[in-house]
Structures are given as structure tokens and as C-alpha cells.
Design a protein that fits this description.
Elements: E1 4-5, E2 7-10, H1 14-26, E3 32-35, E4 46-50, H2 56-61, E5 68-76, E6 81-92, H3 93-104, E7 108-109, E8 114-118, E9 121-124, E10 129-132, E11 135-137, E12 147-161, E13 171-174, E14 183-192, E15 195-204, H4 211-225, E16 229-246, H5 248-253, H6 276-289, H7 294-311, H8 313-324, H9 332-338, H10 343-351, H11 356-363, H12 371-379
Parallel strand pairs: 1-10, 2-3, 2-11, 3-7, 5-13
Antiparallel strand pairs: 4-6, 5-6, 8-9, 9-10, 12-15, 12-16, 13-14, 14-15
Helix pairs in contact: 1-3, 1-6, 6-7, 8-12
Amino acid sequence: MRKRWDLILVGAGLANGLIAWQLRQQRPELAVLLLEAGPHAGGNHTWSFHQSDLTPAQHASIAPLMAHRWTGYDVRFPRVTRTLEGGYLSISAARFAAELENRLGEALRTRAVVAEVAPDHVILDSGERLEAAAVIDGRGYRPSPHLRVGWQAFVGQQWQLAAPHGLTRPILMDATVEQQGGYRFVYTLPLSPTCLLIEDTHYVDNATLDVVRARRNIAAYATAQGWQLATQEREERGHLPITLAGDPAAFRTALAAQPTSGLRAGLFHATTGYSLPVAMALAERIAAAMPLEAPALTALIERFAAGHWREQRFFRMLNRMLFLAGDAESRWRVMQRFYTLDADLIARFYAGHPRLADKARILVGKPPVPLHEALGALWQYKPRKAAT
């Protein structure tokens, strides 16, 4: 048994999985260990993203992880129905786990429950102590008093149907449904001619969702679309933080110099909750810099996270308008107006890189919420020392 690793990654979710994937490609001589408490990497998730979110080189790097690809996607609102061009891709947990297992071999340890994580070691529940030059904690989002967030809460079910569904591309948002106290939409991925992932999604103030009602919502939506549900293959649930404001310096200080990744490091698109593009960027940055001891790796991640926080300022401002201005039942109006804008602008928005002109275009004109509330929301949760 090896006595010391160059890097231990705790939690085999998307962010740490991509770091391990990049290191195996670029620095195969390094001793890297990926630990997962569950029976396999990736948990029970589906990660989707737009073709334009990544560079061609990034796409090539993770091509084996792709489970599904489509050309274009649809959105539906009470007054707007639109098809947008461009690729849309998904990584399934099953594909992610299989490829990581194949690529990493014994460097991936599942059912490894961790009792203690420190910058330079890990102690398992069994008492086994694992030493490393650096340890990255990527075990998902942990609530922080230094971040003020809303939530994207969802229940998704994967179904085999009794007959073909007829979809050729995803429905990213169908907000023609009853809103139920927040911005609600149904997200649908056609995985095969007779298989669908149907997700009931809510932008809500609290990280709670009535799972029983969400299941009823999915069944009712399928019936309304004329889909005959036959066999449920799996169900996934989750809630993603939607950042409104915060104190990033205090957030990082609270991590106590522990290198972190993914949602645990606050690295996600503040409005959409998508995390793959920024996870990919961090994985590349780490792979290019390794090997590093824990203090240097912490500094690298903190610089990266600080830059990401600055880049996300505009999105946090929009989130405050979405969550704090107007009636919760009318939040869909904000998104409906957004989807009337230029397709390239929408693509840059999802990628997290809107231009100055894009920001102006999003804000110009009559807001879809009361003007005085929209202006007030921009200044609510005023950050310390202009941190937002």
C-alpha cells in the first residue's frame, strides 16, 4: 500500500472527477487517489451543458464522458415558444462512473467513508490514515453564513414509455405549468425514442421541495404531453444554490486553508446552477500546475475562485431581481423576457461570459417586474466592501 500520494480527492463528484480525469491525461506519473463514500463515482446525477460552454479542446478532452448529444433545444413560456440552435450535451452518472473506473483503476476507491479531511491527510471511518502532499475536498455544497442564496430545487425521473415520445431535442424550460409559489418549469431530456428524463424544477427561497407533489407534477405533465409512462428507471433529487450576494473573503477564510472544489468552493454559475464549465476550467488549471503542496494548491484555488466571483457579479444582481422583485408566482416573466433576446447573447449568458453590450441589453427596457421593486432588489443584501 502506498504511503503517500501527490493528491487525494475526497468525493468523486463532477469537479473532483474532472480533476482526476485531467491529471490522468496530462500528468499520469502523479500518484492521485479519488475517494467516494458511495458505491460508485458520480452519485445519482445528470450533468448537462451547452456546446458553446466549452472550447473545442475541452470538448475533445472529455468526449468519452458524453452520454447524449442533441442539436438545439426548446423553451416554452405562456407567451413565448422558441427553438434555439446549438449543441446541448449530457453526462450521465452511469457513464461518468464507468469511464472513471476504466481510466483510474485502483486510483478510485469507492465505499470509502471519510471521518476527517485535512489539507495533507484523510482519515477513513475504518481508522486508516492516508497522507498526501495535498487533499481537495469536493463533497458538495455546504451552507455558509457568508453566502446568501436562493435555491433551484428539483426532482427528476427517468422513464421508459409505452410508445415513442416524438421529441428530437430537449425542452430546457417549459414554464407554461402551474407555478406553485416560485419560478417553476419542467425540464425534459429525450434519452432515446422511448426514454425520457422529466424533471420538475423550482426556483424557490428555501431548500425544500414537496417530493410527493413533484412526483405528481411529473405524472400530470407526462399525461398532458400524451406520454404513456411505463417503467420508472431511476429518480434523482437535488437543490442547487443560486447566489444572491455574499462575502467571498469570509467564505474562503471559513474553509481554513483546506483546498476545495466544485460547489463546496462556491464554483458554479450563479443563476443557472450549472457547474461543468467552471469545474472543467479549474481541473485544467490544477493539472497545469501540479505537483503542489497544500498551501500552494489552496492559493491557486483561492485565486481562481476570486476571479470567478468577480465574473459572476452581474448574475448575482439578476438573481436579486428574480428572487426579490415582484410576486414569486410571476418570476417566470423575467425568464420569458430573457428568452426573447438574441440567441448568441443567450449562449454567452449560459457560458458565463456576457459582453458589456449583452448586460445592457438584458437590463434595458421595461422590466417584467415592478420598476421600484426591481431597483430596490439590486441594492438589497448590499455586500461588504463591494464584494458582490
